[in-house]
Amino acid sequence: MADRVVMAAIGAPHGVRGAVRLTVFAEDPLALRRYNPFEADGGRTLRLTSVRVVGKAIVAGIEGVDDRDAAAALRGLELSVPRSRLPRPGEDEFYHVDLLGLEARLVDGGQLGTVRGVADYGAGDVLEVVGKRGVLLPFTREVVPEVRLDEGYLVVDPPPGLLDEVKEPDRSATDPSDESA
Length: 181
What we know:
Order of helices and strands: EEEEEEHEHEEEEEE
Shape: elongated
Number of helices: 2
């Protein structure tokens, strides 16, 4: 398990007074300030002074960052905190960082691959598993009935057809650009 957890990443400046847009990886973006101070690359410490919603963006003020140029210089920095400052996840809850690197095993014991990413495209978390080929799996109890963090794996029961090989259609008989017909 990682001893530091990335809570947000700094994006583009917002306005001329040093505010920045954030990509937030926390469940409650507006609660980020309670995790102050944050550590960034090279051991740099940053403290958020405000966090607010502006349109569809999360915008934050950072202590000591007072203009657009200073905000732009922070672009790309990840804001992390020690795991010890985070609440323990509840039963059947996981920090995404803990899922990364887990072996994905099929219910019959076969190996599917390794969890390389966790994303949420709006309909719930999705696991990116890489192995012989990549596959995206919904992170639901039905598809992932067991997560064994201490043992380094999770069990996958994919829906029928999800892992079937995709075959390219034979277009030779119906190709409209074929002028020999």
